[in-house]
Write a structure and sequence with these properties.
The protein is an alpha+beta fold and 175 residues long. It has one domain: Jelly Rolls. It is built from six helices and eleven strands. β6 and β7 form a beta hairpin. The protein is globular. The relative contact order is 0.24. Bound molecules: 4-(methylsulfanyl)-2-oxobutanoic acid (KMT) and nickel (II) ion. GO terms for molecular function: acireductone dioxygenase (Ni2+-requiring) activity; acireductone dioxygenase [iron(II)-requiring] activity; iron ion binding; nickel cation binding.
């Protein structure tokens, strides 16, 4: 099951839960254009990839033991608010992690992903990622074609990005 909650004001470590206790239901997430599943078998992941014509994938283990000195800076980079011009599919193979996504009124919603969770985020949604206090996320990243996950950090330019504008329109968000 997937746990999503509105967050409190962010103070201190990004890896803490920052939980306001305000639960967000699956419909709230689907209204933001987010799909999620829990798959215990890789066959289910393969089926999603086939259905959506995803041809490539890679695996990343985000932890101090695999990334060494680069761990802290990697985690900070993933936590910069950004968008992509493609949808983002992530499958948690082991451990867990938080994806924060922007709500319709621009508040942060923190989504806890655990082993077996697969989330599909639409192109153009502002989001960020962090490990939690256990500092261990093993994830599969799926790509349509060549591995391409260029994050475009939020700023005046991304607000004008055509993928951002299409997203706002499809989610029915008016600024
Ligand atoms: C992203 O786009 O922020 C990421 O892919 C984070 C690393 S994958 C869990
Ligand atoms: Ni991203």
């Amino acid at each position: 099951p997937l746990h999503a909650r509105l967050t409190e004001l962010f103070q201190g470590d990004q890896r803490l839960p920052h939980d306001s206790g305000k639960l967000v239901d699956p419909e709230y997430l689907s209204n933001l254009g987010i799909l999620h599943y829990n798959f215990s078998s890789i066959d289910d992941v393969n089926r999603i990839a086939k259905d959506r014509d995803y041809k490539n994938r890679d695996e990343i283990t985000i932890s101090p033991s695999t990334l060494g000195d680069a761990y802290e800076s990697k985690v900070k980079t993933f936590f910069h608010e950004h968008l992509h011009e493609d949808e983002e599919i992530r499958y948690i193979m082991d451990g867990n992690g938080y994806f924060d996504v922007r709500s319709k009124d621009d508040a942060w919603v923190r989504i806890l992903l655990e082993k077996g969770d697969l989330m599909i985020m639409p192109a153009g949604i502002y989001h960020r990622f962090t490990t939690d206090e256990k500092n261990y996320t093993k994830a599969m990243r799926l790509f349509k074609d060549e591995p391409k996950w260029t994050p475009l950090n939020r700023g005046p330019e991304t607000d004008e990005n055509q993928y951002r504008k299409s997203y706002l329109q499809s989610a029915g968000i008016t600024a």
